[in-house]
Each structure stands twice: as structure tokens, then as C-alpha cells.
Amino acid sequence: MTVAANPKYIGTRVARKEDPRLITGEGTFTDDVMLQGVAYMTLVRSPHAHARIRRIDTAAAKKEPGVVAVLTGTDLEATGMLPVFIAVPGMNGSKHMPIATDKARYAGDAVAAVVADSRDAAKRAADLIAVDYEPLPVVVDATKALEPGAPIVHEELGSNLVFTYPVKGGDIDKAFKDAEIKVTQRIVNQRLIPNAMEPRAVAAKFEAGELTLWTTTQIPHFVQLIVALNLGLGQNKVRVIAPEVGGGFGSKLQVYAEELLVGYLSKTLGRPVKWTEERREGYLATIHGRDLVENVEIAAKKDGTILGLRIRTVANVGAYLQAFAPGIPTILHAFIIPGPYKIPAFDVEVRGAYTNTTPVDAYRGAGRPEATFAMERIIDRLADEIGMDPAELRRKNFIPPDAFPFNTISGITYDSGDYEPALDRALAMADYKGFEKRRAEAKARGNYRGIGISTYVEICGLAPSKANSALGVGWGGYESARIRVHATGSVQVFTGTSPHGQGHETSWAQIAADALGVSPNDIEVRHGDTFESPGMGVGTFGSRSLAVGGIAVHKAAEKVREKVVQIGAHLLEASPADVVVENGKVFVKGVPEKAKNFGDISMAAYLANNLPDGMEPGLEATVYYDPPNFTFPFGTHIAEVEIDGETGNVRIERYSACDDCGRQINPMIVDGQLHGGIAQGIGQALYEGAVYDDNGQLLSGSMMEYHVPSAEDIPMFNLDHTVTLTNTNPLGVKGIGEAGTIGSTPAAVNAVIDALSPLGIKHIDMPLGSEKIWRAIRAAGEGRR
Amino acid sequence: MGHTVTVTVNGTSYSREIEPTLLLVEFLRETLALTGTHVGCDTSQCGACTVLVDGRATKACTMLAVQADGATVVTVEGLAKNGDLHPIQRAFAKEHGLQCGFCTPGLMITAVDFLERNASPSDAEIRHAIEGNLCRCTGYHNIVNAIRTASAEMRQAASGEAKIAAEVQP
Ligand code: FES
Ligand code: FES
Q1: Hey, are the CB atoms on B93 and A198 less than 8 Å from each other?
Q2: First to last CA, chain B
Q3: Could you tell me the CATH superfamily of domain B3-78?
Q4: Least packed by Cβ within 10 Å: which of A102, A162, A375, A741?
Q5: pLDDT digits (tens, 9 = 90+) for B40-88
């Protein structure tokens, strides 16, 4: 089974099926779900980053008019613990209850819940709850958290160390002994706040023994599973619906406290309950991303040949382990650090640490941006030390195209790759050769101009279930799809993926349309309702939806097509090998005038009185697809910046990228994914960063202090693509959801450092805001005087 | 209770008795069940709640419903006329100017107001105009394209109307 030789819809810019409802205000997001007789939940959150809860006095709150219930952690233990889906070897897991019982471990940790007739009443009552806290010493910095004598976040664990995760290959000691040059760089990959534009929300009702729960999630089936298990309900009695979801980027890739609480409260109170996050609350209580400190050392020859790489990383996981947190700085980071390069020796060790901060988990790219950033910064540092062109240094170390499948020094197998064409196209788009002239012109203006390259390889398509299991991931990496053709010929695709902006309704329709020989307009794609989809869906994260879920759709469509061919051959009295299915018609090759309509075939499948002998009636297929490997997209991103010599303000003047995600289903959607990803990566490079004070107070606690890039901060993008198919799946697709974020951050930072390199500046930690740059320029200027 | 406001929303006049503290965005979403207008922040930063109040793009989270007494409000639900999409709606779809669609109503409304005042904007002017509307999905590239496309279409339609008007002159 492979993609049709001449696909009609795959590879074309089909208009999105999602858009008509979203541009007219008809889409229903979770907070738009209005339930009769609903009560509102508000959570009381600890203002202290670390404090023992001595006593909670709820008497006054209970008397407030309109209050339905006031509950503390001990009242709510029946909700069970929040899940962690990954266990790396030797991991010290944390006990994580939806409402803290003994102590608050970060500012924002929930300590009580109020349910009332109105939001205002709930808030007023929450203000009346008196919590007697005993403040404890606080640790915010992960490195300090691992030092002896640091305050311990989870006393029962004895230390803040979550795990020590080594990944090694080759002879690292020899590499450093043989090195003609060694470069070391400490890199801070700062903490980010995801800021999906839609705040989280949950609504639930419990009727006739059945719980229906609407939630802003990327993984409705996992929410269903955990809610059912924790609340002691049959999975058949828990319907989770992810309606329109307004962006996720990993921040909705959790089973959150509020989902368990709203489910539990609507069940026990016998009344619908709703909770909507306020943005400031989200800054505290929705997961953060990144937050690694890496010490990176590279060993090389003077001609640029890389001999080895040694990295020591400390990852801040925050106060509790969240669903996928243990896998981010480990599996998704350490293994992919080598990127597109041949690296003979490799030694990485990642330590995770609990701190008194908001939990950290997946944020777009999740581990891979950190890996690429470390690699691409050290490559530029090496290029600078040996006086080699950064593009040529990369080219020299690329894995050659004839080396695939390629086993990396970190122990994974790259499916396919051809890195030089992407580099060359990006260099051409960026007019790399003409850059020095532009640098000189900027200098004449009193400005600093720089160009920065990043070449990356990332991991997508998470993942083969057996590989997942070997890595400690506690759930399979398959995806499901069901295709139902009704008697009249209308087609429904049910997918286990859960899109929140990625356009699966369109792309999956394109895939199914090509297999079924009908138009995408005749196909309806439904997702995000656990009572409609196949029994289990894994969900949308890690750029896995197409390479796993899209393939499940393709395979289900191929099965249905096969049955259409069989029925068609029977009705046309021909051999199945001669039957053609296209443009909604089924006919014998060469005799299109004697065609049956697609609807005639589906009708025959349900009339069932004239089917081939032994054929089951009906026309539908369900597939659970488990891929044999991950996929490894790659590309080159090049940023060109100009820094105002007076203010230190950085502007991206030109942005060029050539990405290779294998076959594209809808090039318009591919480019859109890249645009958004690049903007987020530029956000990390130049603008964004969560800041805590030493007491664990989040200083960047709202959109006023945390700089989410606006249209004025972001340039237009020049995009190009190469297409290197993967043979991991029959469509040759790889994934594109996170590539932009992975490629862009190092490109932008490398450009800024390149601009400042004439001043002798070697590295500045992100975000590269104007004040920091201005200070660096001044310091360098003074240094020279 | 006790405050009665009368607001014309998308061409229909509504009189409702409301709390004086009710925000305009809450009035639209909860009192009138017009949920196309969204709430994305609590600091007037995101622009998801933008609606037209007497023709000007306004963040509906920054205004009390009582302040809108007597005003004419247009929300995303009122952009299409008699089933015909507004050019900005068509352009957002055509240019892939939306992904999750959460920011989209606010951005389209801001663009409608802006294009009223600047019929042929430069890209820089477009970016400046939408700087108060955050989008986390699109990187703005296709939003800028969409607003440029809409402006071209609206100019063409306007010149077409002018031509028709000139032709029917005696
Ligand atoms: S809701 Fe964010 S500006 Fe109004
Ligand atoms: S389309 Fe998702 S926030 Fe703009």
C-alpha cells in the first residue's frame, strides 16, 4: 500500500474545512459551553512558594450567599492523584494531589476549592477562606536545589533529585584527548510560559450515571481514562469532549487538577460545574516549558571535524512531575542533540530537580529546541574559535545522504535525510554570499548586523509502542481511525488525534479522499469526542498526528476502498484488479461510461442482498496504526538581524528557512505551522522569559510583564522545502508541527551574536532584549577603551 | 440588579437588566449568548475580545456593559450580511490567517475598523494596527496577508460601486 501514483488532493492547498465556523463565531470552545443550572468553581491558590498548611478555616466562606460547597484537600482525596505517563530509570516520583493537603510547593498550588452559583460569589467566598500557612525556605534554581542543604520540596524523597539520565556513545575521553581545539559554553535555556491564546477551561455534567466533561485538551482519551479510573466510573460512563481548542503547544497535554475536580464535583454535587482559568491564574497553574542549564563542551580538529560532545544538564521540573515531564529533558532532548552531524563520541548526563516553581512540561518542541539550541550554539562558537565559516563547518560534519538509515551515536536510527540541499537553498534565499556588504552598510548607519544559521534534525511521529515502552513511556504510541461510509455514500472519518489549530479535518479529508476516490468536500472528519472516536486515541503532540494518526486514516481508507473495489467488481461483473475508483465513480478500466456511483456501492453494502459470497454487510473500517520507527524531519533556518547601535534593539530583517518534512499533505497548512513555530522560537530568542524572585514569586506573572510577541515583533518569512520521503510509513510523511520552533531560536541568537562578534562578544543568554544587548555593547565598548 | 441597558448588537436592539459591574464582553457572551467574542486575558493585552462599539474597535473586556448603553455593537457574528461573508472573513480563510481560530474574531474586527480608516495600508501599517491583538498560532504572516488581500478586495468593490454609481447617473 502506497500513496496513489498521482494523488489528486494530497499535496494541494485545499481550503480548510474548519474555517467557515471559526470566521463566523460559530465554533464552540469549552468556555462557550453553557449548561443549565451550572455552578462555578474557583480555586484558592497558595501565595507562598513553599509553606506548610497548618489550618484552613472555611466557616465564613461557607456562609457566603450563593455558595454551594467549600472543600479542602482532605475533602477531595477521592479524586486521586494526577498522573505521570513516563518513568525514566531510577526516577523519584512525586505525590501530586489536585488540592495540596500538607504543604503548598509553589506559588499557585491549589489549597481549597469553592463552588457557587455565580463566579462572583465563588470569588467572594474564596477571599473569605483563611489559610494558616507556615512559610518554609524556598528554592527556585534547579542547580541550587541539588546542593546539599537546599530546602526539600518533597521530604519523603530525601532530596530534590528527580533522575540522573545518561546517554553515552563512543570514547569521549579519547575524543577530548585527541582534540586540537575544545570549546565550552554554558547555556541557559530559559523558562517559558506557553500562552495558548485560549485559557484553560473545564465544564461537566453528570446525568443518568454518565459524566460528560468538556475540556481544553490535546489528549481527550487520556483525560477520559484517568477521570474514569480516579473517580471509579466505567470508561463507558465518562465522555470527554475537546471541542474547539484554542491552541495548546503542550500546555494542554496534561490531565490537570481542574479536570478531575470539575468531574468529581459535578458528580458529587449533582449539578453541572464549570471552571475557566483567568490568564494570571494560568501563568501560575498551567505548565511552563524549557528551563534547562547546560554545560556544553565540544572537541574538534582545527579543520572543523567534530570529535566529541560532552554535555551536563540540569533540568528544572518545578514542584511536581507532570504527565510527560520526565521524558522532555531526557528522551526528547538527549537523544537528538547530535542533530545532522556525525559525532564519534557523545556523553550527556541530565539531572532533573524539583524546585518551588510551577511544574515544567512540554512546550512546543519539548526537548528538541533545547537540544538544537545547545548544538547550534556550540557549533557557532567552534566556528568562531577556528575561524571557519559557520555554514561550511556544518556542511563538513553533515551525515552524508548515502548513510541512511543512520544509527546515531546516541543510539537512535534516522530514517532518511539529505541535509546539504536544504542548507544550500536556505543560503541562497538568505543571500548569504552578499551578507558582508549588508553588514558594512549597517555599520555605516551605526548599527550591528549579523546572520545566523541553524541546521536541525528533530524527532517526530511519537512513536512505536515498543520503543516507547523501552524508553519508559507508559502508554503505546499508536493512533486510531475509523471510517464510516453511510448507505447514501456520505463519509465520516473519526480520528484519535485531537487538533487545536493544525487543520486535521482538512488534511485527513485529503488523505481519505485520495484513497476513496471522492472529494474532500464529501468527507466529514470528526475528532475530540471519546464517545464517537475509536476506543482509544493517543492525541496531538510531538508532531505525531500526521505520521501516526494520518497514516491510520490512510490505512482505514485503504481498507474501505478495498471493499468498494470488491463490491464494484461484483456488481460490474469484472475482476477486482480491473476496477477503478475515482471522482466518485467505480468502473472497469477503459469503460468509464458504465460506472457505478460511489453511493451505489455503499447502498449495496447496506442492502446486502447482492454482495460477493461471504462478504460482511456494511462499509466501515477501524485501524490502530503503530509505526515501526520515529520520523526525522530536518532543515536549515537563517535569520538576519540588525541591532540598533544606540538602543540595543534587535530587529529581524530577513528570515529564510528550508524545511524537509517528507511528503506534504497540504502545503498551505505546512507553511502555517512553520510560521507559528518560527514566531514562537523568535519569542524565546528575543522576548520571552519567566522570571521568579528568590522567594518563588513569579515576577513575569501576567501578559503585561511577559512579552508574547505581537505582529510588530515578527518579520515576514521566506520559506522553501525539500522533500525527502521516509519509508517509515506508506505516505512518506514526517511531521512539521514543531520544526519552526526548533530551527528558529538558534538561528536568531546566532545572528545576534554574529552581529556583536566584532565587539568580542561570544555569547549572551536569552532572551536577547534591548536592555541586555545595550549593556553588552557598552560593556564591550568600555572593555576595549 | 437595577441597571437597564439597551444595546444594539448586530442590528438587533436588546434591553436587559444587569449588574453594574458586568463587563461588555460578559454581557455579549453570557447575557446574549454571543460566544464568538472571546476572553484571552485579564490585563487588556490580547485583543481576543475586540468588538466594534459605534464603529470603533474596542476591547470589550475594558468596558462595562452599562457604558455601552445606547451604543451600536458589532461582533464577529454580525460581520456577514445576509449570508455573504465580509471580505475580511473571506480573506482570513483564503490566506490561512487562522489556525485555532481563538484570536480570529478579535483580529478581524480590528482589521475592519482599521481598513475603514486606511483603505490601502502598507504591511508595516497593518502590523502596527494589529499590535494589540495577539495570536500564538500563525506568526502573523498570513494575518498580514489576509488583511492586505481584504483591503484590495474592498478597494475593488468600492471602485466597482463608484463605477456603477457613475454609470447610473443621468
Ligand atoms: S480579553 Fe484580552 S484584551 Fe480583552
Ligand atoms: S489562530 Fe490560534 S491564536 Fe491566533
Answers
A1: no
A2: 58
A3: Beta-grasp domain (3.10.20.30)
A4: A102
A5: 999 999 999 999 999 999 999 999 999 999 999 999 999 999 889 999 9
